[in-house]
Here is the input.
Amino acid sequence: MRFIDIFLLLISSAGLLHGITFAIYLTFFKKKKSTTNYLLSLILLIMAFRIGKSVMLNFGDNLEPLFIFSGLTLLLLIGPLLRWYAKGMTTTDFKFSSYSFIEIIPFITIFVISFFVPENVFETNQQNVIILFSSILIFCYLHLITYIFIVSISTKKLKKKNLNQTKSQRTIFEWLRLLIIGFIIIWISYVSNIVDNSIPYIIGPILYSFVIYFLSFKAYQLKIIDIDGNVFKTNNGSQLFSKISSLIIDEKLYLDSTFSLASLSKLIGESTQKSSQIINEYAKQNFNDFINYHRIEEAKKLLVNQSNEKYTISSIAFDSGFSSLSSFNSAFKKFQGTTPSLYRKKGV
Here is the structure.
């Protein structure tokens, strides 16, 4: 075997082994057991088998037709698993429906047929054999891309529906986006090879290695294996933030210089920790910045209003809810990038 072949074999096999190791970790060593992690490990194991088949087909000879057909038909299982995984990552208390098994009927059907494929099937040039194999090949790849498309569309729709996303929810949407892109890259490499042989067959396994290493890094970075669809669980977070906004903005409690997180928490009947958490998640600001932002917005209106020219900056600061001129100046510069005096002169 040439050096370049050995090099390509090592690269393509590295991702395969890494995927298997990651799957074993999710299944047996991850403390938090979840359906989504089991589904992800299954996807990794099946992809590893599929990639392993490609590596052996590229570097080996006389592979059993059963082995080749098995690797091909597994594509029919990856699609449903990907959809279930995405569903589990975006659904509270995800459970398989009684109709889920219907989605794997194509896989079961063709997998069973593969056991009856003669050993010399690839040694014949019979037209009906070629047509049958080509049809199965095309169906498998169309089946997978259809599922990838379904997962992509459903994820985008759900993302648009959830406008006020928590940090964990944004993490899941980002992870699913990267996962879909990874599958599309691998799918394109294989299909390009089938269509016109413009891309060497070994490129598929090599790309898989790069994709799996990148996704593993992102999974670790995003801590995706520690969360699941339960982060979408409906709670009073959104309603609580609406209540907070109504009190602070609509009733203009920000104009009260003595208004504090403790005061707010008492009004809504929650702990200061809970109130702070809700503001951080939905306003993307801490309590002080949230209050000061609205105070500055009020001050801006007062500063550019010509009828207020007779009032000093200090007066406007106090009228906006600040307890001191220094805190007003600091907050104004933080949010506007300039001083109140210059802002007033420019008449922005």
In short: The mean pLDDT is 84. The first helix runs from residue 3 to 29. The chain has two domains: 3-232, 237-346. The chain is about 70% helix and 0% strand.
